[in-house]
Structure prediction request, 136 residues.
Amino acid sequence: MSQKKHVLILCTGNSCRSIMAEALINAKLGECVKAQSSGVKASGKVNPNAQKLLTDNGYWREEYHSKVIDTVLDTAFDLVVTVCDNAKETCPMFPKAVKTIHVGFEDPSGKEYAEYEKTLKLLEDELLPVIKKELC
Prediction:
């Protein structure tokens, strides 16, 4: 079996969209991709609605947490994906990143639970095929 490719999902706060994307990629494409997430200005906490949604869908892992970008800068990623416009604009240069792409999603933070469900569905429908095409 070939070695897994590494993808970084980058957002501003690393509390919602990027963590949801990380969990989804690891759950659905885990045989060929290892996802990590990070925030340009990490909030330090996971959004409770995002965590509940991931738990309810069986995607949550205890290792998921909000982390600052400095903790992953030395990882040799095959792909970096920004999922919010702010992260796209402030995305640092990765010494070892092969490619950076942007697939934007609206932030459901502070909205109804249904918005989180909608975001997870969008991530699955729009982000997963891109990751699969790029890395699997």
